[in-house]
Design goal:
about 300 residues, alpha/beta, Nucleoside Triphosphate Pyrophosphohydrolase, Rossmann fold, eight-stranded mixed sheet, six-stranded mixed sheet, about 30% helix
Amino acid sequence: MKQPDVRAAGAVVLRREADETEVLVVHRPRYDDWSLPKGKLDKGETDAACAAREVAEETGVRVRLTAPLSPHRYRVQAGLKQVDWWLAEAYGEPGDIQDVHEVDQTEWLPVSEAIEWLSYSDERDRLMEAVALPPVTPLVIVRHAKALPRKLWAALDSERPITDWGRRQSRALIPFLTAFGIRRVVSSSATRCLQTVNPYARALALPLEGWRELTEETSARDPDVARVVAAELAVHTARNATATVVCGHRPVLPAMLEGVGAPPQPFATAEALVVALTNDGTPVTSRSLVQRIGR
């Protein structure tokens, strides 16, 4: 598939009340249109971080992303543009609108009204896609950042650290994981995995849980352990509605994916797969999404 010339991201921000569901929409005076909040990616930014940032800048509303939605592609003067969409929920008190020239009105509208107000059919489609999803909690599965090669490390492999590039990748995870409101940080107890998610844990003053069950050494002795503990983690994440990140190793990730019910796929260093889980731990994602971090 051709790579887009322009990357943007946005969010369908829902407010689910007992009697109705509302969605956050914005009016842009430059185009005199009503749309969902969205904008272009900054250099080096992930589309998830961009989506959360754009909502905050255009509406003052802080959000947590919960599930990926279908992307949309179309032609613009600069070439092929892709907008990646996310389902999101608001939290906390609203802040100031920063893009005062971009957006002059924001409204929470019942979905039935928003369908009439939105100016673009693709955004109406994204809204209906979002409304069709049940309440979900994100579980983010990450492969550890770039580590020192095994041949250059004489001590225990479990103590092998990440490189300078790996540290840059781990720092790049902070805004990415923040966009999902991650409140629990789990990792293989191997040094390279702990170092990958430690910057985020420290930034938010969260405990960092190191699990020996997710190490390569444990998996070599019993390949089923990682699958079982990943399945248990998914259920706990969903039942407690606690957005969670878990960091593991390339050889162990297939078992972890199987445990949470996600499709198999390769991971480059510091790549992350977002899995949206229903209340019983069932994965429901509209697409398989992998973020490349720190590239």
